[in-house]
Amino acid sequence: MSDALTVHVNRESLHSLSVPDSFEASDSFDVVLVNHGESTHVHLHLDDALSEQAAIEAPNHHVEGGGERTVRVRRTDDGRARGNLKVVTAYGSTTRLVDVVLTEPAATDESVQVDEELAKPQPRTDDGGLSTVGSVPLGPLLAASGLAVGLAVGAGAVFGSVVAVVASLTVALLIIGTVAWLLAAQP
């Protein structure tokens, strides 16, 4: 089975087409349009039988003089199909048919290899409780947080203003949040 179906355009004469009689594929494949002469348009069409199993993104293709263009025929379904790929140039005056057979895709081994070490239970490293944050014990963090909140409330009471209490609590919460974030970021 070949990866690409090659179509020669303008090789023998202007608007001539040279195609293989048949082509077989088990997966998506390319149609390679090789132009040996003047720039031209080539139209590709899958008949009904092939259209049930495959698709061409665009049917009309411009091929520069002396150039080459690759067109992908994408499998849309698994299964077998047989039909014709119609290749047309010169506004329909030159038409060739290629007998295309789409076979079942080859079965692939999709098993996953697992390292033996992954099958062994790993030892538990944490005690399941909330005794630390990062690598810092939870006790000192809570003590520092309580102290910051106490200082904020005390500052508000000394200055006798609700605004001072709210501002002090906001600063305390920002400090606590920053400390917690820094501790969580430690490896």
Describe the structure in your own words.
The chain is α+β, with helices and mostly antiparallel strands and 187 residues long. It folds into 2 domains: 4-102, Immunoglobulins (Immunoglobulin-like, Sandwich), CATH 2.60.40.10; 131-185. Helix content is 29%, strand content 34%. The chain is built from 4 helices and 12 strands. It has helices spanning 48-51, 116-119, 138-159, 162-185, and strands spanning 4-9, 17-18, 22-25, 29-35, 40-46, 54-56, 60-63, 68-75, 81-89, 94-102, 132-133, 136-137. The protein has a 5-stranded mixed sheet with strand order 2-1-4-8-6, with no helix packed on it. A 5-stranded mixed sheet has the order 3-10-9-5-7. The chain has a two-stranded antiparallel sheet with strand order 11-12. Strand 11 and strand 12 form a beta hairpin. Helix 3 (138-159) runs antiparallel to helix 4 (162-185). The two termini are 54 Å apart. The model has no long low-confidence stretch (mean pLDDT 84).
Core attributes:
single chain; 187 residues; alpha+beta; Immunoglobulin-like; 2 domains; 5-stranded mixed beta sheet; 4 helices; transmembrane; membrane; transmembrane helix; DUF7524
Please provide a brief summary of the model:
This protein is α+β, with helices and mostly antiparallel strands and 187 residues long. It has helices spanning 48-51, 116-119, 138-159, 162-185; strands spanning 4-9, 17-18, 22-25, 29-35, 40-46, 54-56, 60-63, 68-75, 81-89, 94-102, 132-133, 136-137.
